[in-house]
Task: structure prediction
Amino acid sequence: MKQFEILKKRRLAENVCEYVVYAPLVAKHALAGQFVILRTDEDGERVPFTVCDYSRNDGTVTILVQEVGFTTLRLSQLEEGDALCDFAGPLGNPTDLGQFERICLVGGGIGSAVIFPQAKQLMRDGKKADVILGARNNSLLMYADELGKYAANLYITTDDGSCGKKGFVSDMLLELLNEGKRYDCVFAVGPLGMMKAVSKLTEKLNIPCVVSMNSLMVDGTGMCGCCRLTVNGKTAYACIEGPEFDGHAVDFDEAISRSRMYAAKEKEHLCRIRGGIC
Result:
């Protein structure tokens, strides 16, 4: 078996694939909440991906990849049996929800890849969490069946109502709280706007909220500064101080603004490498 070989590849939604990679040293130390940085080839860029599952026995690490740029497009062209050039990790700090008993995991879109290992870990710790899973529509829901096996209760929402309840994950959370649910902590992962909404809601209701900030990264050691964000009015680096932070302390407006800085150029570049008309 080749180092960093892709053992399994599964398409979960349009432009989203799951990869099971043979990386025994990474799998040996990986914990929920951490991430890896990989390169597809020697000339490739370094890109981060959250660990969404791992098996110490099999020596494998599972990641979820959404095709949004050159490297992720290159990844989509690799098949089972191909090998990655680099697969470094685990990086970042593992999740620590040990002080909480009643936990709600909230995942939006590809954020389901982050809350999945959390649900598994909490079940092993005897703390089955409620899970709210959301997406724009039914075709973009991921890990619903898998999360259903580990959640105390699974609630599904879609923006268009094509599966579960119509609305946003924050709507579902508020509805559950209004019905009498009580949580010591809400762990939210997904688009920045979604995490901002959940953070504002929980702050208003005085419920601790943890968010995972999957910022742009290059080196993963805090030297490049790409993943910087403002937390409690101070600069923090997601790669070494995160990737998880107090959602009530994150400056989401700044993070959203930074995430859009290169949107137009990224769209044009992706169009060109796909051979389209920009």
Observations:
- The chain has a mean pLDDT of 87.
- The chain has nine helices and 15 strands.
- The chain has two domains: 6-91, 103-212.
- Residues 112-124 form the longest helix (13 residues).
